[in-house]
Amino acid sequence: MHDAADPQGLRPSSTKSVQQYIDERPMWPDGTHLPTVPMTGMQWRIWALAAAGKFFEGFVVFMTGVALPLISREFGIGAAQNGLISAASLMGILVGAVGLGGMSDYFGRKRMFIVEMIIFVAFLVLLVFCTNFVSLVICLFGLGVALGCDYPTAHMIISESIPSSARGKLVLAAFGFQALGALGGTAVGFLVLSTIPNLDAWRWMYGTAIIPALAVTIGRFFITESPSWLHIRGAVDRAEAATRRLLVRAPQYPTSIALSREVELAAAGHGGKGSFLALFAKRNRRATILASVPWFLQDLGTYGIGIFTPTILAAAFGSKPDHVRSITDLILNDILAAKGAALITMLLIVGIVFAVILADKVGRIWLQVVGFIGCAAGLLVASFSDGFEGSTKTVVIFAGFMLFNFMTNLGPNAQTYLLAGEVFPTAIRGTGAGFAAAVGKIGAVATAFLFPILLTGIGTAPLLYILVGTSILGAVVTWLYRIETNGVSLDEIGR
């Protein structure tokens, strides 16, 4: 078997880009191409380490929700301080996405891929030994920084290392490991609460993730740097070496790697040298709007529907005691919360599975547009609940909730993440994807602060109508600023 550029394996292949080598299908001596590009061991290792990081993100985020009532009781934390705890995590994500995520454009994908996991493990260990409110806020902020950095970095380390034809399903499959992590966290949380029914249970919950997360951190030292990033930075020899290491196969193809030396010109043609302001330059403005505005609108809907989640879960699993009279009541409440989280996570997994299957077939733009419209339909169904009473009211809300969760995870929740890491040129991909993630979290913060006030002021149905409008707006913005990336080489997207 030989590479297409060198059927006989006797001469060096012509100069190509890194992505062209990655996308190259092998050819048999008779000139027949393989139907697909087989993944190498290094490509699968990179994917698995990124997916494992996503798993621990979901695992720990879930743990924070379950652990918070126990932490609040142990440290005597009030409602205002609970708000600061939530704000610390969100602020950490904002800083990590824009700051550390953007640094991958300067210091490399691999380096930040390792750094984020070191930060994650370090603050996870410190969190287990927290003794007061201040140390708790600092540790949750640190975990948020690591999670924020991972939004762009994990996406890029995968997408810049794999064939274009499989990029959508593999990036989203890794993204879906957040949901599997949350489901794993559900099982661990339930087990810990059942076997250690005391206030220290939350420390054991977090502690279970330390050793596996440390193993993932060590594994990341043994992958190759993104050859595309090395190439646009002018390190052509290192880029060629990294590409060879990435594409080790038996039998070997391509048989030789020769990258273009005209990297400065290529980088300029793809959007500049990586400054933050380059995101708003004319050539990148369309990508910036597509990546960030729908993500912001998607988070408005996702966090908005979360306001009604306690009512739905209480109906499904039984109401918790109104007043916590003992540690037993506290543990019971947490177990009910774990069951509710398991239901939400199952909806997330189902939607993500469909997104993985369809992303490279239907395309990102269509899935995002249809997903936003489906979200609007689900919210509209939920708004009809005002015309019913009792169990019928709960059923109508629940039906709308189910439809919303499926459609958002099929469409905007998955596709905004995928598109944000694809539509920008390599030189500013980390900065752009990080900016988009941060804008999305601004939507989450706005929802957390404003929607409870609006819910009291204008009522349930009008608030749901507002969310219907934001979902439709998300579909419109996606279509107007569409950049279809399905099966397109990262070298060509946005040109």
Automatic annotation (TrEMBL):
Domain of life: Bacteria
Matches recorded under Pfam families: Sugar_tr
Entry-linked PANTHER family: SYNAPTIC VESICLE GLYCOPROTEIN 2
GO MF annotation, one: transmembrane transporter activity
InterPro entries membership: MFS_dom, MFS_sugar_transport-like, MFS_trans_sf
GO annotation, cellular component aspect: membrane
Membrane association type: Multi-pass membrane protein
Domain Major facilitator superfamily (MFS) profile: 46-486
Keyword ATP-binding applies: no
Organism: Paraburkholderia megapolitana
Protein name: Nitrate/nitrite transporter NarK
